[in-house]
Amino acid sequence: MCFNAITFNGLAGFVMRTMLAATLMFTAAAGANAQTTPQIPGGRPKTVQTVPIRPALQTPSETADAMAQADRLSLQSDLAGVGRYNGAITGDVSERMVNAIKEYQKAKGGKPTGALNPQERAALAETAPRNLSDRGKPPLIGAADIASSRRFRGDARHGQQA
After folding, report:
1. How far is 121 from 145, CA to CA, in rounded Å?
2. Quick one: pLDDT at residue 14?
3. Which of 3, 20, 96, 121 qualifies as a cystine partner to 116, CB 3.0-4.6 A?
């Protein structure tokens, strides 16, 4: 049905315009009332207990994953330098790396979250040796490994004094 000037002429047009205006006024009034809280005479509004919504926190692994590969390599190297990490320095995030961070935080008296804040990271970088040769021999080799490697090299004076 097309509404044009001819449709709204005469009595039928007047009735249609009046009904349309009344419908719009009623809809506007009902919409305004729907958004307000009804007031109870002499009563107080009921208190509603709410629960605060906390945003989801990142896991330590997700935090480390968000770092650049070079930063993860540096972090693993620094943790190894201070004796907290004994895994392969690949830049890959692992449970071993997260546990090493937690151990470092505990040793420094911090909360073991598994993710370093900027101050903790700066302190770790400051205390870690600059390269692997500064660390000396790694503590992962036992006496049996040393004896085995000397026999393999053919060192006959192992255990003998010169």
Report:
1. 34
2. 75
3. 121
Alpha-carbon torsion angle 145, 151, 152, 155, nearest 10: 120
The model carries a pTM of 0.49
pLDDT greater than 80 at residue 1: no
The 3-class secondary structure across the chain, one letter per residue, is: CCCCCCCCCHHHHHHHHHHHHHHHHHHHHHHHHHCCCCCCCCCCCCCCCCCCCCCCCCCHHHHHHCCCHHHHHHHHHHHHHCCCCCCCCCCCCCHHHHHHHHHHHHHCCCCCCCCCCHHHHHHHHHHCCCCHHHHCCCCCCCHHHHHHHHHHHCCCCCCCCC
| Joined tokens for residue 58 | 């990142």
Tokens of 9: 């002429």
Tens of pLDDT, residue by residue over 44-62, are: 777 888 888 777 788 889 9
| Angle, CA 138 vertex, CA 135 and CA 141 arms, to 5° | 165
Both tokens of 152, joined, read: 């393999």
- Per-residue CA distances from 115 to 27, 72, 99, 111 (Å): 56, 12, 10, 10
Span 74-112, pLDDT tens digits: 999 999 999 999 999 999 999 999 999 999 999 999 999
